[in-house]
Amino acid sequence: MAELLLQSREVPFRKGLQAGVSIAIGYAPVALTFGLLAKTTGLTFIETVLMSMVVFAGASQYMALSLISLGTSIFEIIFTTFIVNIRHFLMSTALNEKAEDDSLIKKALYSFGITDESFSVIATKDGVQKTGFILGVNIIGYMSWVTFTALGFVVGASLPHVLQESMAVALYAMFIGLLVPSMKGSLKVVYLAAVAAALNTIFTFTGALSTGWSIVIATLMSSVLIEVIEGIKRGNRQNEQ
Amino acid sequence: MSNEVLWLIIGMGLVTYLPRVAPFLLFKGKELPVFVQSVLKNVPYATLGALIFPGILLIGESIWYGLLGAAIAFIVAYIGANVVFVVLSAIIVLSGYSLFIS
């Protein structure tokens, strides 16, 4: 019986680790590049690895590097980080609806590991998600991020330039790999992604919003708009009957 | 390690963790209005759209580099390949493109 219980706890965790393999691979090039850039920016090895361990958010870590090299004040860098990462609020809120009921401590623990990538992997799966599964996905991504940051600091500069360049596509390819299977089954998913992509592109190229806000607003507008349109359509169909 | 960088890392860590953890502390889950719950169910797919575009267009010197990567990833994913395979094929094709074509 005890063994059975243990198994039922371990299986979701192991499945999470498996589902997170694509994240671990996708992070490798991004973290390698971060390690390399941090070194050229003048951070020490410890500082570089510590930043990946404590912050664990790719875009804002890159941004911090370029702000550091521009001589920006600490306060400004921290504020920019907050704006860039505010989108996680939306993701955590959505994930909270999907996650199994569990203690607040466990949720507070795994919420540290919520990223664009882990959220995408967990939230595109059907049904309620187990704590173990979420933890598994987040942990394997975290280990990859920290390990490859360190590796990038040490050996990043010796990677072939062509590979350094092409690895920039990794995370985007992963997002596409996660989105396409859901698109096949549902026109709604196609609309949701297309509208958000179009809005974010407009906001970005017109310079109307900073990157952090742009993703949040585009996502929200698309999610609400498509839901409202679907509601109206459903209402019309009911009226006709 | 300089004190300044240490404070920077701590500050960045705090403001990044805050939006990640806050919803779990604020909401118990399942108590939000039905409409809000439906909107939240849409969020993952809309987020993916916004994360892909326009970011992928800006990874190379011309937008064609990113578009080629997007096209490869789309096709490989459409065939039904695993995400790991999607990522690797996009990297390999773009490396080949840089080496042999441009």
From TrEMBL, chain A:
Specify where it is mainly localized. membrane
Question: Where can this protein be found?
Answer: Cell membrane
Q: How does it sit in the membrane?
A: Multi-pass membrane protein
Q: Does the keyword Cell membrane apply?
A: yes
Q: Which residues span the membrane?
A: 20-38, 70-90, 133-156, 162-180, 189-209, 215-232
Task: Point out the signal peptide segment.
Answer: none
Q: Which InterPro entries match?
A: Brnchd-chn_aa_trnsp_permease
Q: Does the keyword Transport apply?
A: yes
Q: What keywords does the record list, in alphabetical order?
A: Cell membrane, Membrane, Transmembrane, Transmembrane helix, Transport
Spell out the family assignment given in the record's similarity comment: Belongs to the AzlC family.
Mind telling me what this protein is named? Answer: AzlC family ABC transporter permease
Species whose genome carries this gene: Cytobacillus stercorigallinarum
Species lineage: Bacteria, Bacillati, Bacillota, Bacilli, Bacillales
Automatic annotation (TrEMBL), chain B:
Transmembrane region(s): 6-27, 39-59, 71-100
- UniProt entry keywords in alphabetical sequence: Membrane, Transmembrane, Transmembrane helix
Q: Which InterPro entries match?
A: Brnchd-chn_aa_trnsp_AzlD
- Pfam families xrefs: AzlD
Protein name stated in the entry: AzlD domain-containing protein
The scientific name of the source species is: Cytobacillus stercorigallinarum
